[in-house]
Structure formats: structure tokens, C-alpha cells
Amino acid sequence: MTVPPMKTQLLKWIGNKQRFAHEIASYFPPVTGTYFEPFLGSGAVLGTLAPERAVGSDVFRPLVEIWQALAENPSILVEWYTQRWNHYSASTDRVDAYEEIKARYNGAPNGADLLFLSRSCYGGVVRFRKKDGYMSTPCGAHKPISPKSFRDRVTLWATRTAGAKFECMDFSEALALSGEGDVVYCDPPYTDTQAILYGAQAFRLEALFEAISEAKARGAFVALSIDGTKKSGDYICNVHIPDGLFTREVSVNVGRSMLRRFQMGGQSLESELVTDRLLLTA
Q1: Model's pTM, two decimal places?
Q2: Domains defined for the chain, CATH in brackets
Q3: CB of 100 within 8 A of CB of 116?
Q4: Which among 14, 11, 1, 12 has a CA at the least distance from the CA of 50?
Q5: What is the spatial distance between Cα 31 and Cα 182, in angstroms, rounded to a whole number?
Q6: What is the pLDDT along the chain (282 residues), one digit of tens a residue?
């Protein structure tokens, strides 16, 4: 399947597959039914594929609020971003302005504040304290894109995702909706990374494999991105894959780890290459 790349991302997100989404989608069959992306995050593959019918979902409600606003009233996304960008840019201390927005988010988690924080936090690595969900990522050194640039992205993404519905639900609920002619792409949290990273839906990998098996039995095609080789090949994540569940496996080089850049204080990451295993049920 030929899928041209789309370079413009709407959200900055840990594990964002934007640069590699076209390669991942190239392994999918034509979507004759509905496309499902149950670990939505940045929606990179959905936006690149631009299917006629899609369901994008996640358990994290503030994230889903952003995607639902894009589908229902794109101009409100631009308004959310512009208000916060203006406040941040006009401040004599941008770190203080960022911390004010972050404190408001932590007091009452919401999509409007998360939208700006995701584009202005350090390295786009949105981190949450496991015990209470407190967002801890400091302000980034970069200047967030202008409201005009963001508006252009919203316009593009609203068009690319026009056939999608966005729901707040668990991956198992989403997979249970899939069947004959449907395509499902799962990009769950890396099993080998820190639990403080946003996107870590509470789940057991075994439960995901079971849901994939049931979807496959109903006739759905499922693709799964999972940990592969890290650190230039000197470490291979040990994940047991049930026999017979997938028929093909390909490697996708997803570049250098932004998480490691965060942990290493922005040092060079030549030795931190990450490769994903893309597992395919057909």
C-alpha cells in the first residue's frame, strides 16, 4: 500500500511516529471497513493514512478532548492555543507563564491546557507522576510555533481526519469493535520505558494479545508496534509473542529517543537509536 509521508504534526508527543507513519502504513492492506487506532497519542498514523472511516481512541480524557475539538469545532483548538501562546509570549518570564498554565492543568486536567503544554514542554516529553497524575515536565527552551502556524496545522489535520470519530475508551473496547475489512494499528506504551510517561495506559500486554487474537478471528487486520532493538543494537527487549498470532514481522527505524535526550540533558544521542518491531497479523 503506497502512503505518502505527511511531515506536519499537530501534537508533540512521546513516541510520536510522524516521520515514520508512512512506512508503517505502507504495510497495511486497503481499508475497506474502518481504521482503528486505540492508543491514539499524536494520531500520526491516522493523519497520514487519512482513512474514510476511522475510530481514534485513548483512555486519557484531556487528550481525547483535543481530538474531539478538532473533529467538532477546529476553530476552538486555535482559540485555546492562541490564548495561551499570547499569555506566554507577552510574559516577562516565560517560565513563570508556562508554570502558571501547568499549575492550572494540574489543578483540573483539561485538553485546552494540555494542548499548549504538549507544544511548549521540554522535548515534547509529557511526564506525569504515577501516584496522582501530576504533570512534571519543565518548560522547553524552544519557542512554541505561532498561532498562525498552528492554525495551518489544524486546517490540514481537520481535513485529514474528517472521517474519524474520537472516543475515550480502553484499547480492549476499541478492538472489540473491529471485524471483517477493518484495519487496527496498536502503538502501546513501550513495555521497557518509565511508567511516568504519558500514554502509559494501564494494561497487561497479555490482555492486548488476547484482544488482538479475537479481532483477528473476526477478520480484522492488526498491526502492532512494539519494543525492538535499542542502543545501536546492543540491547534487545525480551517480549514473548504468542505463537501464530502474527504472520509477519518487519523492523522500523524510528530514530533517536527523545526520552533519552531528556534523561541525558540534551547530550548527543548517536548511540541511542531505536528500532520498533512491527508485527502484522496477515
Answers
A1: 0.88
A2: 18-69+163-280 (3.40.50.150), 72-151 (1.10.1020.10)
A3: no
A4: 1
A5: 6
A6: 778 888 889 998 877 788 899 999 999 999 999 999 999 999 999 999 999 999 999 999 999 999 999 999 999 999 999 999 999 999 999 999 999 999 999 999 999 999 999 999 998 888 887 778 889 999 999 899 999 999 999 999 999 999 999 999 999 999 999 999 999 999 987 654 444 445 445 667 889 999 999 999 999 999 999 876 544 344 455 678 899 999 999 998 766 554 444 444 544 444 455 678 899 999
Cell numbers for 270: 548517536
Indicate the Cα dihedral angle 145, 151, 156, 162, nearest 10°. Answer: 130
Q: Are 222 and 85 in contact (CB under 8 A)?
A: no
Q: How far from 244 is each of 173, 222, 248, 280, CA to CA, in Å?
A: 23, 13, 10, 11
H/E run at residue 155: helix 147-160
